[in-house]
Write a structure and sequence with these properties.
Layout (H helix, E strand, L loop, with lengths): L1 H17 L3 H12 L4 H8 L8 H37 L17 H15 L3 E2 L5 E3 H4 L24 E3 L5 H9 L4 E10 L11 E11 L4 H16 L5 E8 L2 E10 L16 E10 L1 H6 L8 E8 H9 L12 H4 L4
Parallel strand pairs: 1-4
Antiparallel strand pairs: 2-3, 4-5, 5-9, 6-7, 7-8, 8-9
Helix pairs in contact: 1-4, 2-4, 5-10
This protein binds phenylalanine (PHE).
Length: 339
């Protein structure tokens, strides 16, 4: 028996070395140490030996088992390492190879939106979202736009049902905010708005606005002017000036429209500002008392200002884009220029 075991060990030792992968090694192991393996068979035969020979025989078989297990484990470890290295080599990625891959980038509108949002956040404004599909109440009534106001006409607003529309202005966000949060309020709300216009160089049925709202005690037109001056300088450059023109919005009283000096000609007059030196950037005003009342805010205690800017307009002026349709066409040749 001893001789048999010696031969077996020798044979296994050399076959283990020639095993090239884990599968063959495992098969070999099962054939020797498994339930019906060769060494297991020898171990079983011990029970037929005379009792005095059994302990010595058992010892020999066990020593052989320990030795063989060690041989299998060592070879297994070496093979595992080899297989891992082969796998790593075959899956190697050359991270320097991206030279000719077209990289994505931000849309020019998003670049400008991020800039505007960052500016107001730095002044302590919070950013609020509000629904694009909206109840008429938020788009009109609560904003002091009465039933017979022309902005309600079917040709201006897309209606989903009699009571629900696609919001035509982000001013809806003012109401949503004031219903939830009591003053002091400092928020901006960027988003899409919809109007039933045919697309041309200056119109689009979908465009982007950013609303601003500040409500607190003693808020005046001076606060509005200060913030908008900073805003215009931030977006169009340090030398930018702004001017206020009287205007009308049902939800602000008094209402103004705000122009900034043209960032392309600095006031001299050019193609972008149509020769006037000024470009209209937003509508604004002091929040109408009725709007505060609609949101259960006491207009004798609190005042506020609001503004709404067309972000597409600002983006197009900023980049000198003269056709409002182009940024929505997703032409990569156009989009590539901004990144
Ligand atoms: N909602 C107005 C518009 O769409 C802009 C505006 C917002 C004006 C807030 C005044 C105050 O034209």
């Amino acid at each position: 028996m001893e001789e048999k075991i010696r031969q077996l060990t020798e044979r296994v030792e050399s076959s283990v070395l020639s095993c090239a992968d884990m599968r063959t090694l495992n098969d070999l192991k099962v054939g020797v140490l498994g339930k019906s393996g060769e060494l297991t068979a020898i171990l079983r035969n011990i029970k037929d030996l005379p009792p005095e020979q059994k302990p010595a025989a058992g010892k020999i078989v066990n020593e052989a088992r320990v030795k063989l297990e060690k041989i299998f484990a060592e070879r297994g470890k070496a093979l595992e390492e080899k297989e891992l290295n082969e796998k790593l080599a075959s899956e190697k990625i050359d991270i320097t190879i991206d030279k000719n891959v077209l990289k994505g980038g931000l849309h020019p509108l998003n670049i400008v939106r991020n800039k505007i949002v960052d500016f107001f956040v730095s002044l302590g404004f919070i950013v609020a979202d509000s629904p694009e599909i909206e109840k008429n109440y938020y788009n009109f009534e609560a904003l002091n736009i009465p039933e017979d106001h022309p902005a309600r006409e079917i040709q201006d607003t897309f209606f989903v049902t009699k009571d629900i529309c696609l919001r035509s202005q982000t001013s809806t966000g003012q109401i949503r905010m004031m219903e939830k949060v009591k003053p002091p309020i400092k928020m901006i709300s960027p988003g899409r708005v919809y109007r039933s216009d045919n697309p041309d160089a200056t119109h689009s049925p979908m465009f982007h606005q950013i609303e601003g709202l500040v409500v607190d005690k003693n808020i005046t037109m001076c606060d509005l002017k200060g913030i908008l001056e900073l805003f215009a300088k931030e977006i169009f450059g340090e030398s930018t000036k702004i001017r206020f023109r009287p205007s009308y919005f049902p939800f602000t009283e008094p209402s103004i429209e705000v122009d900034a000096t043209c960032s392309h000609c600095h006031g001299a007059g050019c193609r972008v500002c149509k020769g006037t030196g000024w470009i209209e950037i937003l509508g604004a005003g002091i929040v109408n008392r009725n709007v505060l009342k609609n949101c259960s805010i006491d207009p004798d205690v609190y005042t506020g200002f609001a503004f709404g800017a067309g972000m597409d307009r600002i983006t197009n002026i900023f980049h000198g884009i003269t056709d409002a349709r182009v940024p929505f066409e997703n032409d990569v040749r156009f989009l590539k220029q901004f990144n």
